[in-house]
Amino acid sequence: MLNKEQFADNHFIRTIIEEDLKSGKHSAVQTRFPPEPNGYLHIGHAKSICLNFGLAYIYDGLCNLRFDDTNPEKESDEYVNSIKEDVRWLGFEWAGEPRFASNYFDQLFDYAVGLIKEGKAYVDDLTPEEMREYRGTLTQAGKDSPYRSRSVEENLDLFMRMKNGEFADGSKTLRLKIDMAAGNINMRDPVIYRIRRAHHHNTGDKWCIYPMYDYTHAISDAIEGITHSLCTLEFEAHRPLYDWVLDNIPAPHATRPRQYEFSRLELLYSITSKRKLNQLVADGHVCGWDDPRMPTVSGMRRRGYTPEGLRLFAKRVGISKSENIVDMSVLEGAVREELENSSPRLMAVLNPLKVTLTNFSDGLTQSRSAAFHPNHEEMGSREVPVSKTIYIEADDFAEVPPKGFKRLTLGGEVRLRHGYVIKCDEAVKDAAGKVVELKCSIDHDTLGKNPEGRKVKGVIHWVSAEHAAEITVRLYDRLFSVERPDAVRGEDGEYLPFTDFLNPDSVQEITAYAEPAAADLPPESRWQFERLGYFVTDRKDHSTEKPVFNRTVTLKDSWSPKA
């Protein structure tokens, strides 16, 4: 359930909104989340979703979901559907039906015609290379296109013929007539329409000219009555163009939008470029956009992250204009904290070592009931069965124990979690000298109570071999082995391919054993395996016939980069 305390507070955008509401500039808050449907959403989008939908929720306003679909060659309904699913999974609902910028193409075209009639836009024949040459540099003014002085009548005629498909792709553009000497390069007669014969996922083949993002975005905000248009900082230099467009078209809505920028999230040991994420998928480095190693919302969901954990992360990283570089441990910590309270417990053994309980007796040795969560009685309990053969973690036994070792040793005792105290009497080895079995004896007087006359400090987890569910476990780690995989330069000063820094140990699949309940769980069932970490049954591959668990996060942050 959402509550208003779940969202970041005391940031500058909330201050602006509160001042706008107090002054009467706006009577209500209307925001929007405007992804381009050219890929799956990632952790940076999750932060933006929490900001835009969260502000609408806090101030009892509305938030639109709008697809800025002006680039038909890279967009698809697959991405549209995945975005809608992700937003809902994160706990939010948009106002009315989803919007599409492409639904406004007729209005955008009419506004462009109006700009031409007012002498504020012209059709240009410069090639992209020539346009770059004419644009100038940060220190040198641009120069006017030789086509800038075309008459209104000629521009109208050419623009209509562009729309009607009379010219080749890329042969002409429509540009705003602003100022080729402007200090802000974005204001040097920006292109607002280009010719591109491409099938559009929403409008089909109706158009062969498509509007540019900056032009479309500003007008879409105005059409929808957006009050606060929130963008990441790379759009700060585009704000003068956003304002110019809105100042030079007839107002389609009484509410005049304003753009505000906040810092983009940079997550260490990860990447948040959709182009590079797409490359990982296309080149087979990961198993799709929802691979649990991916920083996509669908990938994090499949890994076992919760909406509550991601909302907590978004609150903790906050909203500001300062650099927002966040270590992966902050994300994992937020997820871990939420799972600690919400996940029931089971025992599982990932690296099994056989233990034979030599004095096991059907009539004497008993099982014990254990709660699924120590702090939530409402989660219920289960019987923890025991048999003559059990499995423990191989790491919980040492022939030559290191200093401070509190687990099982030859001649030593340990308590089985939710069970008896046992003593190791013998270690059986194979021909290579590897320990393959322990023979231990049970102190039958220790079920649910301490042994008399001695202290047993160690407690280990275990499962009954007779009753255990055989499960497949995928142990996921960070996808990259360096903090900024796309920002490493070689000796020549050039950036090295980010794929050079993929972590070869980012996933390991093993067969493990768990308590019987693990064999009867639905997909996306989150559990803590005691002493091991948090795990989730896989959304796609898990079934009661073949249980598959993904490790979401370890019990504590113990990650360190490989040397």
From TrEMBL:
Coiled coil: none annotated. It is found in: Cytoplasm. Its EC number is 6.1.1.18. Residues 459-538 form the tRNA synthetases class I (E and Q) anti-codon binding domain. L-glutamine binds at D68, Y213. The keyword Protein biosynthesis applies. Residues 343-443 form the Glutamyl/glutaminyl-tRNA synthetase class Ib anti-codon binding domain. ATP binds at E36, P37, N38, H42, I43, G44, H45, A46, K47, S48, T232, R264, L265. A motif ('HIGH' region) lies at residues 35-45. Monomer. Belongs to the class-I aminoacyl-tRNA synthetase family. This is Glutamine--tRNA ligase. It comes from Neisseria lisongii.
